[in-house]
Amino acid sequence: MGCTNSSTGSNIGQSPDDAGRATDQRLQRDLESEKKKDKSVKKLLLLGPGNSGKSTFFKQLASIHNDGFSDENKTEATKPLYDSVLAQVKALITECRALHYDVSGYSRCQSKTLEAIRFFDDLPRDVEINEEIAKYLKIVWADSAIKEAFKDRTNLSVVDSAPYFFENIDRIAEVGYKPTEKDLLLVRTPTTGVTECAFAYNSNEFRLYDVGGQRSERTKWIHCFDAVLFDTNFSSIVFFFCIIVHPTSHIQITLPTTFPFSLDPSLLFIVIQLRACLSFFKRLRKQTKKVTAVLFVVSLSCYDQRLFEDVSVNAMHEALSLFEETCNSRWFRKTSMILFLNKSDLFGEKIKRRSLKVCFEDYDGPDKNFDAGALFTLL
């Protein structure tokens, strides 16, 4: 109320036009002030393929600079964490079979292991982890064939942090379980849309943006810098889209300004989805218009793995191709590029038992050598 009274008092004795101009000038000054403040913020765009560890990196920064995760964050994360853990054990069983460790007929498998596998085969989705689930999960994870399959996994649907959750399953199965900070950092939650985090370091203000790395999410941002999309009137796009999808539909759109509009109900969901997609594009385009640097994250340990979305594609080849595409984007010509080679610890373990030649046929360096392998990947 104090602000309102002050504003009203300052306009006493002024004509409506003078008062309006004074208000406009004040708003303009505020906008200029915000603009200058925004220019001083260093904007970092976090990019990379799925399962590269970039979202874990993002969550770590957010946790460090925002005093950890709130109780609300932990409560909201409980169900997705349950879903992720169960998805991992099911994926591991599937991976075991794909690697021809036929668990159901494997001579080393005990009857308890077979019973546990059948339990997970029949387990419905969207269930809370309880003591019974924990019991069967521990039986599966204790089997030597399952652990061997985890070491030799090639499909990214089985994530690197799975053992951590399997070994903490009793705690997760407790009634009233609330995820710890480490749980939240390690759980796989594929990024959808744009997530941002603001923080300060050494008197500098930063704003970090994380966007989805899975192919389904990547299609949203990899072409979002196409100027044509953002120079086109939204109603025109919707009109053109609807005509292609359903030429006989009854559509009434007054171009270029009408939205909302009337159309065949069968197209409503499609148009709503398109509108949400374009809204995403515009938001990301606005946020990343003046990016200070792109931090591109690649997992070193993915050199022998396949994409979750397309098992015919090597994950490292996909990552390097995406990095090249990002570097050559005209929108990043004047933007600093930072390549972050992540998961070096896992790479160090894996290179001891699997040659880099499974990914790079022209690699002629020594096998089981961390430095040589990492340097070749970088070059």
TrEMBL record:
One Pfam family from the record: G-alpha
Segments of skewed composition (Polar residues): 1-14
Highest rank taxon of the organism: Eukaryota
Region (Disordered): 1-39
Basic and acidic residues bias spans: 18-37
GO molecular function, one term: G-protein beta/gamma-subunit complex binding
SMART domains for the chain: G_alpha (SM00275)
Binding site for GTP: 160-161, 185-191, 210-214, 342-345
Gene3D superfamilies: GI Alpha 1, domain 2-like (1.10.400.10), P-loop containing nucleotide triphosphate hydrolases (3.40.50.300)
Protein residues bound to Mg(2+): 55, 191
GO biological process, one term: adenylate cyclase-modulating G protein-coupled receptor signaling pathway
GO CC term, one of those recorded: cytoplasm
Keyword list, A-Z: GTP-binding, Magnesium, Metal-binding, Nucleotide-binding, Transducer
Protein name: Uncharacterized protein
Upper taxonomic lineage: Eukaryota, Sar, Rhizaria, Retaria, Foraminifera
